[in-house]
C-alpha cells in the first residue's frame, strides 16, 4: 500500500534518512537507493509517497518519490510553503549569505561576516543544501 509522509531527516553524504508517515506510527528508514528522485530533492519537509516494507531492522521505505511530484513544503519565512528551492552552488550560497548579512546587520565587520558565512556554509553542506 502506497502511503504519504514527510522527510524529517536525510543525510545526502551518508545516503540515508527517515520519513514520518502521515498515517502515524514510527519513522520509516529511507535509503538513497530507494529514492526515485535526485537525492538533492530529498530534503527535510519534502512531502513524499512511498511503500513500506518490514526488514530485519524494522520498517523501511521503498519506491520513494515526491508526492504529486511537488517540491518540499518547508517554512522558509517569506516562502509560501509550496515553492521548490534548488540546491545552490557554493559560490551562489556565499554570495546570497553575504548580501543578506550586509543588509540585516550592516554593523558587522568583514571578519565577522566571513565567520558567520563560514558557519552557515558548514551547516548547508552537512544538510545537502549546497553542492559540494
From TrEMBL:
One Pfam family in the UniProt entry: CSD
Entry GO MF terms: DNA binding; mRNA 3'-UTR binding
UniProt signal peptide: none
One record GO biological process: regulation of mRNA stability
Domain CSD: 2-66
Keyword field contains Phosphoprotein: yes
GO cellular component labels: cytoplasm
This protein's UniProt keywords: DNA-binding, Phosphoprotein
Keyword hit for Nucleus: no
PANTHER family reported for this sequence: CALCIUM-REGULATED HEAT STABLE PROTEIN CRHSP-24-RELATED, COLD SHOCK DOMAIN-CONTAINING PROTEIN CG9705
UniProt protein name: DNA-binding protein
Organism encoding this protein: Mycobacterium asiaticum
Amino acid at each position: 500500500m502506497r502511503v504519504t509522509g514527510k522527510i524529517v531527516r536525510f543525510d545526502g553524504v551518508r545516503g540515508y534518512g527517515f520519513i514520518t508517515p502521515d498515517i502515524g506510527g514510527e519513522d520509516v528508514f529511507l535509503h538513497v537507493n530507494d529514492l526515485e528522485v535526485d537525492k538533492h530533492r530529498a530534503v527535510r519537509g519534502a512531502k513524499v509517497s512511498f511503500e513500506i516494507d518490514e526488514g530485519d531492522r524494522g520498517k523501511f521505505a521503498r519506491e520513494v518519490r515526491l508526492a504529486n511530484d511537488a517540491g518540499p513544503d518547508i517554512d522558509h519565512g517569506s516562502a509560501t510553503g509550496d515553492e521548490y528551492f534548488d540546491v545552490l552552488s557554493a559560490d551562489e550560497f556565499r554570495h546570497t549569505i553575504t548580501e543578506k548579512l550586509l543588509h540585516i546587520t550592516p554593523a558587522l565587520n568583514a571578519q565577522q561576516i566571513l565567520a558567520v558565512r563560514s558557519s552557515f556554509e558548514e551547516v548547508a553542506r552537512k544538510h545537502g543544501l549546497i553542492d559540494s
